[in-house]
User: What shape does this take?
Amino acid sequence: MSIASQHKIIRPANRLHIKARISDLSVSQMMANAHRAMALIVQNYSQWLCADLDGLSRSFENLSAEPGNGDHRNDLFRISHDIRGQAASFDYALASDIATSLCDFLERHEKIEEVQLKVVEAHISAIRAYLRQSLKGDGGSVGQELMAELSGLIQRTEAS
Amino acid sequence: MEPLNGIDFTRQMRSMKTSPDPYLPIILLSGFTEMERIRIARDASVNEILTKPVSPESLYGRLTSVVRQPRPYVETEQYFGPDRRCKEAANFAGPYRRRPGQASPHDLGTRNTKQVIV
Assistant: This one.
């Protein structure tokens, strides 16, 4: 069989190009508008993050009451995954880093029992402390310290 | 993601039998940045991948890519979706970038050689 007969190249009609409206604005003007819109969201993002933090706390309480419950673990993963994805886009990089660490930990542990609950609690507390101190970005030296503490706690927990 | 994650959604959309539009351009927005996850998304036949954090520039770049420079679609026995090659080598003289049995330098050993010949 020749190489050519093993595949087919298809060029579908470009309907998006027909529908896309040509803006009167230049690309740089559009980007400036988008950055202004994002700046407005950044102002409000701490409220979204607080709401997500409340959700994490509720899920943690549920999981503490029923260690090993997969639904509560999944709730924790879903919310922390949202924070992981959104926070860095809105100038809360450290919250995103903490959430990433929590997501990765949850991925490695299908069942969260009592010993792992301490790690989850430490992550939630770290995000709460970050918000309480009104830090932004990567949190500077405080942020590095927090991440090092979390990393050490995870290593100790997983080694035990 | 409930009830369907982006990868499974893409696979269903590309299914010729059940999809309302198998050629629908799909930009995957993901918080996962690991190379293996990016490969899974690419092989699930998303058109573009955008990893978070998102900036206006990165989003605009992906949108203009699917609108202005859509990739052709490729159909083989094992794959249907946008051409997974996104760069043309400057010194490439064609017609085929790889011959049968010649694996991609990025191949992890999980793909069939035929899939590489697209």
